[in-house]
Amino acid sequence: MLELDKKSSQELFKAAQGYLRNTLQVPSSLMAWSDKKGLPLFLEKGFNFRQTELLGHKLLLTVPLSESSQNPTGLSKQLGSLERHFEGIVVLVLEHLSAYQRSLIEESAAFIVPGNQLFIPQLAMDLQEHFRRRRDFAEDQLSRHHKRSSCDT
Questions:
Q1: Cβ partners under 8 Å of residue 114, min gap 6
Q2: Which of 17-26, 62-71, 135-144 has the lowest mean pLDDT?
Q3: What is the DSSP letter of 27?
Q4: Judging by beta carbons within 10 Å of its beta carbon (0-12, 13-18, 19+), is residue 41 exposed, middle or buried?
Q5: 97: helix, coil or strand?
Q6: 92: burial class by Cβ within 10 Å (0-12, 13-18, 19+)?
Q7: Rounded to an integer, what distance in angstroms lies between the CA atom of residue 63 and that of residue 138?
Q8: Could you tell me which CATH number the domain at 9-152 has?
Q9: Hey, which residues does 47 pair with through a beta bridge?
Q10: pLDDT tens digit string along 28-81?
Q11: CA 51 to chain CA mean position, Å
């Protein structure tokens, strides 16, 4: 099960919805996915689902319910299984993306990390937000000051 300090599925869905609205400036509403007929039990019990629409495309937002199901190879296979049961784009919603999970990009698996990254290759979307750490900024300032000082002499 997820640890207590992790965001709940509901919080992740709301964060993903807000991220889509704010980043793409498009309305977004979430609905329960009611068409789970024929879905294998390991998928039905392994993920929470919400359906939405983005730029005329149906999206199925999925949140894995356990840490063990967040292995990139397994996730990629499970998303492929979900795609056979959903007429649209299956998008994984994660709280964060580890270096290990970045292989999802190579697998062309669509995902959202609210506030950080949106990768939906089926819609040619790859948005990343990068923020410079304060230390990097300070080092740049020192480097510029040092260069300026050496040029003045």
A1: 12, 15, 16, 18, 19, 93, 95
A2: 135-144
A3: -
A4: exposed
A5: coil
A6: buried
A7: 38
A8: 3.40.1350
A9: 64
A10: 889 999 888 889 998 998 899 999 998 899 999 999 987 655 677 778 888 889
A11: 15
Buried b (16+ CB within 10 A) or exposed e, 61-78: bbbbeeeeebebeebbeb
Indicate the pTM of the whole model.
Answer: 0.75
Q: Which of 9-23, 93-107, 116-130, 134-148 has the lowest mean pLDDT?
A: 134-148
Q: How many CA atoms lie within 13 A of 54 on its CB side?
A: 27
Cβ atoms within 10 Å, residue 119: 21
The domain segmentation of the chain, as residue ranges, is 9-152
Residues 6+ apart with CB under 8 A from 147: none
Q: Are 16 and 93 in contact (CB under 8 A)?
A: yes
* CA 27 – CA 77 distance, rounded (Å): 30
